């Protein structure tokens, strides 16, 4: 059985021997009974981005539910590169977990 330093403090055995999410959760879940006071509020950048999204949603609803549509390229997971609401928001790409996938 593998035993990595990163696993120290985690209980269970089956999830260490193979893919067993249930075993990991059953052995390591601890309920949180506190409140949300540890959470931070949104950043100015998040508020700005959310404001832009809300404008686009309003425009989308005004157009009957579709803001714009591609009719030339067949869609697939690799059909397009990354998309951004505007050039200003490209800097958020680095903070997205999926940015380079």
Compact overview of the structure:
With 101 residues, the chain is mainly α. The C terminus is likely disordered.
3D architecture notes:
This protein is mainly α and 101 residues long. 31% of the residues lie in helices and 0% in strands. The chain has helices at residues 14-17, 21-28, 44-62.
Share of residues in strands: under 5%
Mean pLDDT: 86
How many helices? The count is: 3
Structural class: mainly alpha
Rg over C-alpha atoms, rounded to the nearest angstrom: 21 Å
Elements, N to C (H/E): HHH
Shape label? extended
Q: What's the β-strand tally?
A: 0
Residue ranges: pLDDT <50 for 5 or more in a row?
97-101
Range of helix content: 25-40%
Largest sheet: none
For the terminal residues, how far apart are their CA atoms? 30 Å
Task: Kindly list the characteristics that best describe this protein.
101 residues; mainly alpha; 3 helices; disordered C terminus
Question: How are the SSEs ordered, and which strands pair?
Answer:
Layout: H1 14-17, H2 21-28, H3 44-62
């Amino acid at each position: 059985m593998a035993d990595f330093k990163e696993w120290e403090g985690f209980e269970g055995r089956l999830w260490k021997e193979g893919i067993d999410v249930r075993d990991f959760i059953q052995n390591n879940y601890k309920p949180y009974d506190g409140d949300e006071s540890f959470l931070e509020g949104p950043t100015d950048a998040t508020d700005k981005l959310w404001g832009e999204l809300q404008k686009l949603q309003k425009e989308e609803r005004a157009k009957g539910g579709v803001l714009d549509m591609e009719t030339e390229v067949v869609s697939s997971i690799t059909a397009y590169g990354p998309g951004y609401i505007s050039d200003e928001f490209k800097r958020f790409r680095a903070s997205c977990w999926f940015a380079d996938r």
